[in-house]
């Protein structure tokens, strides 16, 4: 084959490859969906920003699991800010003054999916056009264990208070699963404490906003829910303060 012909074939191949690459890039970009869009002043300059929560599904389906989730912010000074989040089954965005500085903050939740129902949370301020990670409150630490006589105990580390649960209403299940024998534990067994199953802004006494979190505590299986632990938090002096804890038993 002549040199000129080879060059022509090569040039055609490269042009075709470039065209395919461009089409592929367009198709990939088209997969990004806008989950929600808000227009609020989140910098404190009196002008609105455009805040969009976006995600990229694994498939061309808005109900598909989102492999990438991010917040895109167009600020009033003409600059763009992108905040990457974790992947998840779905996501939500709220704008609220959670750190009590007079300017609304960006609060996002990403639901991981699955039977556990765990949620990841993200909290940022962009006051004076400076992005700062406020980091939402952490889940409560607990000490938990089953007791003889079909009972369980949950101790909240932050308060030192313990809660006792009578679980005789599910003793047949525990006996069948080998947890108890004649009312006695076969071996020391802890309960399973989930991270936050939900975390959302809530109005506190005095009108300021805080966060309310709910953690689920389960027994020997994920479906064996024993209690829900609710905690209320307030942001003050750059850190989270625990305001209240409430523990509620799940009835079977």
UniProtKB/TrEMBL annotation:
Q: Which top-level group of life is the source organism from?
A: Bacteria
The protein, known as: VCBS repeat-containing protein
- Organism per entry: Neobacillus citreus
């Amino acid at each position: 084959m002549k040199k000129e012909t080879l060059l022509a074939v090569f040039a055609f191949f490269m042009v075709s490859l470039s065209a395919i690459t461009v089409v592929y890039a367009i198709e990939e970009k088209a997969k990004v969906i806008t989950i929600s869009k808000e227009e609020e002043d989140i910098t404190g300059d009196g002008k609105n920003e455009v805040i969009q929560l976006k995600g990229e599904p694994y498939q061309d389906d808005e109900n598909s699991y989102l492999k990438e989730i991010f917040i895109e912010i167009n600020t009033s000074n003409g600059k763009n800010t992108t905040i990457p989040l974790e992947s998840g089954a779905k996501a939500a965005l709220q704008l609220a003054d959670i750190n009590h500085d007079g300017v609304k903050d960006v609060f996002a939740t990403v639901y991981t999916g699955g039977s556990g129902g765990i949620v990841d949370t993200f909290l940022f301020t962009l006051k004076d056009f400076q992005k700062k990670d406020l980091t939402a409150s952490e889940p409560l630490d607990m000490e938990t264990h089953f007791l003889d006589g079909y009972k369980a105990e949950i101790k909240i580390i932050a308060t030192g208070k313990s809660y006792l649960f009578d679980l005789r209403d599910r003793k047949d299940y525990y006996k069948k699963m080998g947890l108890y024998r004649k009312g006695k534990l076969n071996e020391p067994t802890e309960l399973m404490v989930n991270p936050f199953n939900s975390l959302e802004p809530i109005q506190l006494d005095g009108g300021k906003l805080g966060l309310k979190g709910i953690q689920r505590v389960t027994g020997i299986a994920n479906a064996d829910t024993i209690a829900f632990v609710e905690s209320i938090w307030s942001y003050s002096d750059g850190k989270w303060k625990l305001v209240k804890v409430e523990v509620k038993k799940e009835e079977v």
